From TrEMBL:
<keyword id="KW-0540">Nuclease</keyword>
<keyword id="KW-0255">Endonuclease</keyword>
<dbReference type="InterPro" id="IPR016071">
    <property type="entry name" value="Staphylococal_nuclease_OB-fold"/>
</dbReference>
<feature type="transmembrane region" description="Helical">
    <location>
        <begin position="6"/>
        <end position="28"/>
    </location>
</feature>
<dbReference type="GO" id="GO:0004519">
    <property type="term" value="F:endonuclease activity"/>
</dbReference>
<feature type="transmembrane region" description="Helical">
    <location>
        <begin position="35"/>
        <end position="54"/>
    </location>
</feature>
<feature type="domain" description="TNase-like">
    <location>
        <begin position="68"/>
        <end position="202"/>
    </location>
</feature>
<dbReference type="InterPro" id="IPR035437">
    <property type="entry name" value="SNase_OB-fold_sf"/>
</dbReference>
<keyword id="KW-0378">Hydrolase</keyword>
<keyword id="KW-0812">Transmembrane</keyword>
<protein>
    <submittedName>
        <fullName>Thermonuclease family protein</fullName>
    </submittedName>
</protein>
<keyword id="KW-1133">Transmembrane helix</keyword>
<dbReference type="GO" id="GO:0016787">
    <property type="term" value="F:hydrolase activity"/>
</dbReference>
<dbReference type="Pfam" id="PF00565">
    <property type="entry name" value="SNase"/>
</dbReference>
<keyword id="KW-0472">Membrane</keyword>
Length: 302
């Protein structure tokens, strides 16, 4: 005969069941830790995450990620895509760029539309998690400002970037090597676009024609492609970096690691086609240019 479960074991089982349904509640956080600690709490997170749809599930935590996770407590939400931890570290969320709270050029004033809404949505999500987050560092773990670059998850195991993108509070943006969630984040953004939510509503942020670029910073740009520089080996693989031009005005630089994500024929096939791309524009040597950071950031639109 099997021994009857102890009261502690019964409470542990009950805590798992409650966490699966009420994972966002602070009671769950408190009791899960008291019964079985962090490992038990993460198991409850994964159980709750299993209720997500197949399309969404890859944006949720899974047991396979346990060895890559770090736990943090949020000290402050700086803006819609950056947080400060109690440890003193800052995290720049991977996979998303939200409108700026501060002007990006001398002739701008005040926050960009929906910048405050994105910050408040992130604050609300952090508060609902009791300040607890889990994060997974990207292949490139820090940016030039020494912020951590990471996929950030709520205490319920939900990707925070996906949460914001689904509500139209940011643009998906990917970087080669730091794009583990790129496919599911694209799907999250598409749901907001289809529903005309947030920044996709009413022409609030229309794409900018390449010929109209007049300031630096993040932009979503459309234009017709001319292939300016492209080398391939005998197998059709791209050799080195590549350069495209949009509407004869905007240089689009593809660094080697991005260019080599394509076959040469794929890039050549873009010649003469209109594309939408996104990234950070700068002016160098008297010409506006954008460095493409991932194939996810460029899509043909005709």
């Amino acid at each position: 005969m099997h021994a009857a479960p102890s009261n502690g074991a019964a409470l542990q089982a009950a805590a798992v069941a409650v966490c699966a349904v009420e994972i966002m509640h602070l009671w769950c956080k408190k009791n899960a830790r008291s019964y079985m600690g962090r490992a038990f709490f993460l198991a409850a997170i994964w159980l709750a995450a299993a209720t997500a749809t197949a399309e969404q599930s890859s944006c949720w935590l899974s047991p396979a990620l346990s060895s890559e996770l770090h736990r943090g407590i949020i000290e402050r939400v700086i803006d819609g895509d950056t947080v400060a931890l109690q440890s003193g570290e800052k995290i720049r969320l991977l996979g998303i760029n939200t409108p700026e709270l501060t002007p990006r050029s001398a002739d701008s004033s005040g926050a960009e539309p929906l910048a405050v809404a994105a910050q408040q949505a992130l604050q609300a999500l952090v508060a609902s998690s009791g300040g607890v987050v889990y994060y997974r560092l990207g292949g490139q773990p820090r940016d030039r400002y020494q912020r951590l670059l990471a996929d950030l998850y709520s205490a319920a195991g939900e990707s925070i970037a996906a949460h914001l993108l689904e509500r139209g509070l940011g643009w998906q943006v990917a970087f080669v090597g730091n794009d583990q969630l790129a496919s599911c984040l694209r799907a999250a953004e598409q749901r907001a676009r289809s529903g005309r939510l947030g920044l996709w509503a009413g022409g609030l942020y229309p794409p900018l024609p390449a010929s109209a670029v007049a300031t630096g910073g993040f932009a979503r740009i459309i234009g017709r492609v001319s292939v300016e520089k492209l080398r391939a080996d005998s197998s059709g693989a791209v050799v080195g970096a590549a350069t495209l031009v949009l509407d004869q005005t905007l240089l689009v630089k593809l660094p080697r690691k991005v260019a080599q994500s394509y076959r040469a024929a794929q890039l050549q096939a873009l010649d003469g086609r209109r594309v939408e791309l996104r990234g950070w524009v700068s002016r160098r040597a008297g010409q506006w240019q954008l460095q493409l950071t991932s194939p996810f950031n460029m899509q043909a639109i005709d």
